[in-house]
Amino acid sequence: MTEPVDELANRVAPMVGTAVDELQVAAVLESQGFTDQAARDDYGLPDVFALAGAVFRKLPREIGQPRAETRIRTIRELSHGPLYVLPSPVYPAVYEWLGGTTMVHGLVFATAIGWWWSMGMSLVAYRLSGHGLDHAAGRSLRFSGGIGLAAVTAGAFLIDPRLWMFCLAQVGFQVASCVLVTYRREAWVAILMIPACAGGVADLLFNVMPLALYGGALSIVLMLAASWYVTGQAKPDARKAPRMPALLRLAAPSVAYSALCAGFMLNTDAQFVTANLDLGIAVAPLVLGMGAVEWRAHRYSEQAFDLLTSSRSVTAFRRDTWWLLVRELATCLVIVGCLGILLLGALGQFGLLTTRGALLVDAHVLLGGVFFLGFVLMRYEGMNSLLVILSVVLIANVVVNQYAPGNEVTVFLTGCTVLLVGFLLVLRVTAGQVRRYR
């Protein structure tokens, strides 16, 4: 029966990728409908696991492609959090230029749209690159980025004619940084944002608002030019790209999840942008720690695959994967929590900390854990659970705030806790299912 097994190995090779053992191959075969009876009748082997072993030995091997974590990749991922806050030095100048209320409207609108739009852009590009269609990926980033910028500019003009430049700059940063991060150009983002940061600091020290605004505009222009450049470097693709509607359908659930996340967080944080300092910057530990959250989510995936090699039974794999998940979640909470403690200590030192501010910081620390679990669920077919749980919590958050004003911080903290527990309960069931790691 060697010939049929060779044929099966060639057929399932694209689905199993760089399989590390028979257990992973068995998960793929079972997901494709193979049974013990089929293994006996069609391949002369006693069960699916014996068939998986035969297929595993026939799979093509790629030598010299270790998945070991590298220091450079870790630094890149950890840098993502600090990169997200680079536009903030310019915000005081924008506040002075537009006024507090107008700026908040523009910031919330642009951030909310840019959040999920950038997610959709990157997902489509990653899927195209994963199929070896680098040129198509670059074209899709250019096209979708341009559409996003035009749509946000038009929407901002309708909200307030004075807002369009600020919203264009805000979403321009999100779109351009999305592109540069996709192409592993995090260092470019840091360098190109120097004019904005320098202008913002100069404004804070010497009250030179125009310098901050011009520096911010220069940085955004440079970043957009850089993103246009890197998306055009790939050679023409050897085959035709999938149709865009199909790619958009695949990306839609993740984009919906991003939109719900933006709605949940901004529904509370937008109310405190111009409030007391401790409330206004309570989100800082989460933003600075998002790179670490992303890093640990990737490490979880790598270590879970490694467990497929070391675990000798499904029961052992489920147990080990669960404790791995708990450990990585704890690591995320500790990292974001330490950033929160530093912020609380600084605010307390200057007498700027209130009880509400401390609770809001705590809520964002928990939200870091929620986002980590969300990354894991997104990767391992848990999107439906994510959308249902997050939709319910968001609706409850909005309704309670509507009928019980003044309790926004407590409601937000409760919502973050419910999300953390809800996502964890889903993963308690799904994290140990071998088929999800195929």
TrEMBL record:
Keyword Nucleotide-binding included in the entry's annotation: no
Coiled-coil region: none
Keyword tags: Membrane, Transmembrane, Transmembrane helix
Origin: domain of life: Bacteria
Bilayer-crossing regions: 107-128, 140-157, 163-181, 188-206, 212-234, 246-266, 272-293, 329-352, 358-378, 385-404, 410-431
Protein name, entry field: DUF2157 domain-containing protein
Species, as recorded: Kibdelosporangium banguiense
